[in-house]
Hints:
TIM Barrel; 2 domains; 4-stranded antiparallel β-sheet; 17% strand
Amino acid sequence: xxxxxxxxxxxxxxxxxxxxxxxxSDASSQLIEEASTPITLIPTGAFLLPAFCDLHLHAxxxxxxxxxxDLPLMQWLDKYTLQSEARLDANPTLARxxxxxxxxxxxxxxxxxxxxxxxxxxxxxxxxxxxxxSAGIRAFIxxxxxxIDISSPDSRKLTYVERNASTALEAVTLFLEGxxxxxxxxxxxxxxxxxxxxxxxxxxxxxxxxAGLGNxxxxxxLKIQSHLAESKEQAERVRSEREMDDINxxxxxxxxxxxxxxxxxxxxxxxxxxxxxxKGTSIAHCPLSNSYFSEEPFPLREALDCEVQIGLxxxxxxxxxxxxxxxxxxxxxxxxxxxxxxSMDASRSSDTKVSIDWVESLYLAxxxxxxxxxxxxxxxxxxxxxxxxxxxxxxxxxxxxxxxxYFDLESRLExxxxxxxxxxxxxxxxxxxxxxxxxxxxxxxxxxxx
Length: 450
């Protein structure tokens, strides 16, 4: 058996890792021997992994997850997105039900940290914050800011927009105060929700609103999230209306900072990535939703080579899966398809490969997304204990767990010791699911026990 670093001796009262050594070390042995409460054990056939980080998710879109993905982006927003957001803003009971279920399913999928888009109504976003806080999830929550109506003439009976920039900025201030009221009485390490400035994207925001949000971010040191260069239609619309690309619009408003996370970025090129690196701006890569709404795949390898900080997002409901494991697999798959195109192009035969492997995707799903939010995403002394226990092999039945098969191990001798290796973990990465996830901890607190 292997000992976790989890409770309570190796994690302090603030949920921070205070001891991190092999279970067989002298210090670990002493810790175990002197333990005054039961020690949590990780059985042979299981391992600890940092909890996943979902760097881009639209909380109200969980209401219609899996619908309408046959439509182009702007039509989909008009038919589904704006309608669902308005519906939740008008029905707090429904909003609480949707957000409570969202929090529960995030935990089931091993997601401990999430960056959320909300709606435009302050009260609905505070319900979202309450639901995430109650579930014990580390959540960065954005009240939408948008003062331009993008609904089509056919649906103008719905006007889902804030009256003007001044009204939108006042609402953001109220949201900031509301989030503060939710956590101010809690110990600092239990303040697991944080407000994030959230201009939906350039087509929904006047230059006045964007500039106001930029000033507010700088004044209060607030994080920012939005969408950047997601689709051809969106990019051309911005260029036509603002006479510049949306990356330039964001920079002009002081919204490209080291506190900024931009989703998608599929239509950016190497010079843009280099510029984002200089600014310290991070990217939320959402391979599934890109497949539906972006005419081009995101150049992930090129962005990584430019040292842009990147994490993975599910982009519910532009992506239909809430599982970051799906996002990892899709990120690798898309990159492999891009590599196939590159290798078949004789004119680019000497170019650097553009694919990533499963280990790199696992980094993006944990450490990559966490770093974009100013967190650790790894196990080390002083870091929050955000972890999941993944069980892949049952030593009592000699069989893999869930969809996993390890045929060579089924005939092992009873006293043979099982040592997990890279190939066994890779099999989990390809085939694993919720049946393999036994426990989840956030800031040292158990939020899932199987």
